[in-house]
């Protein structure tokens, strides 16, 4: 009887975790660059009541009899699928048409990766994202294969107008003589195993031991994709799928709760046999 109780408790815990993930996905349905998550389950330990035996000339074989102890969360996976393009018409907003990530660096020189291309120039001429982290690439000259990302800075930014970003990440501006100059180039990164990236909040990811080191690519390459100006990547949350999963999580939770109440009733009947 206690086996059914422990199995049902594991089911409650698992479906609560599933609901937590669904709730987070739905909360971020309008978050630019958000990558949704999913939960998978697996069964756990089994008690062997009777082992199986192979047949002989005298008696036939028998199969093993086992009782399981419930379920557990096998994984919580981030779905790194590209979200739809949300048009903003702002020149420095960038959408990655591909699998690459923008490279940003915080004040402690920690490197992060993001799909959110909400870019600005600060008063010092640094290209930053909406959280004030530095966007990496190259200043001045265009990127080449094997580049090392550095801060993008335009010291005399006030001397340029009509700043734009090309599909290959090249930032250009028009100076006071009307000439167009290259001011820098935005870099992108890809990973051998992007599914192993660590979520850090703010739609940032960090490398892990299982993701591999970042491979720095030039926008336009097939490995990272090209940039589209005047747009941002929308959340990849599929609301219809989330609501379907929510129903499954709710019904799974209810069914496991019913197993607990039914097991309790059976235990009560057992106790009443003494009277």
Tell me about this structure.
With 275 residues, the chain is an alpha+beta fold. It is 22% helix and 33% strand. It contains two helices and 21 strands. The protein has helices spanning 2-27, 239-272; strands at 37-43, 46-50, 65-68, 71-78, 85-87, 93-97, 101-105, 111-114, 117-121, 127-129, 134-139, 150-151, 161-165, 170-174, 180-186, 188-190, 198-199, 204-206, 215-217, 226-229, 231-233. A hairpin with a 5-residue loop joins strand 9 (117-121) and strand 10 (127-129). Helix 1 (2-27) packs antiparallel against helix 2 (239-272). The longest helix is centred in the C-terminal third of the chain and has 34 residues, at 239-272. The chain is elongated and about 100 Å long. The model has no long low-confidence stretch (mean pLDDT 92).
């Amino acid at each position: 009887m206690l086996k059914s109780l422990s199995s049902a408790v594991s089911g409650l815990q698992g479906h609560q975790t599933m609901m937590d993930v669904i709730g987070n996905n739905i909360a971020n349905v309008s978050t630019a660059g958000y990558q949704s998550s999913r939960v998978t389950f697996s069964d756990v330990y089994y008690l062997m009541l009777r082992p199986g035996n192979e047949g002989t000339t005298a008696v036939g074989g028998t199969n093993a009899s086992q009782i399981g102890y419930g379920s557990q969360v096998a994984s919580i996976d981030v779905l790194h699928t590209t979200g739809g393009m949300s048009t903003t018409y702002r020149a420095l907003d960038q959408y990655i048409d591909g699998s690459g990530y923008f490279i940003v660096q915080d004040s402690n020189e920690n490197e992060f990766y993001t799909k959110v291309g909400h870019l600005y120039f600060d008063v010092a001429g640094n290209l930053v994202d909406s959280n004030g982290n530095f966007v990496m690439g190259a200043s001045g000259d265009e990127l080449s294969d094997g580049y090392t990302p550095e801060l993008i800075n335009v010291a005399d930014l006030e001397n340029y107008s009509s700043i734009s970003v090309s599909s290959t990440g090249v930032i250009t501006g028009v100076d006071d003589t009307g000439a167009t100059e290259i001011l820098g180039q935005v870099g992108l990164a890809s990973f051998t195993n992007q599914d192993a990236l660590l979520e850090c909040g703010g739609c940032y990811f960090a490398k892990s031991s299982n993701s591999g080191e970042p491979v720095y690519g030039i926008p336009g390459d097939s490995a990272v994709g090209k940039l589209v100006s005047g747009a941002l990547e929308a959340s990849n949350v599929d609301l219809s799928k989330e609501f379907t999963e929510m129903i499954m999580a709710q019904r799974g939770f209810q069914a496991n709760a019913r197993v607990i109440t039914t097991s309790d009733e059976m235990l009560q009947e057992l106790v009443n046999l003494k009277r």
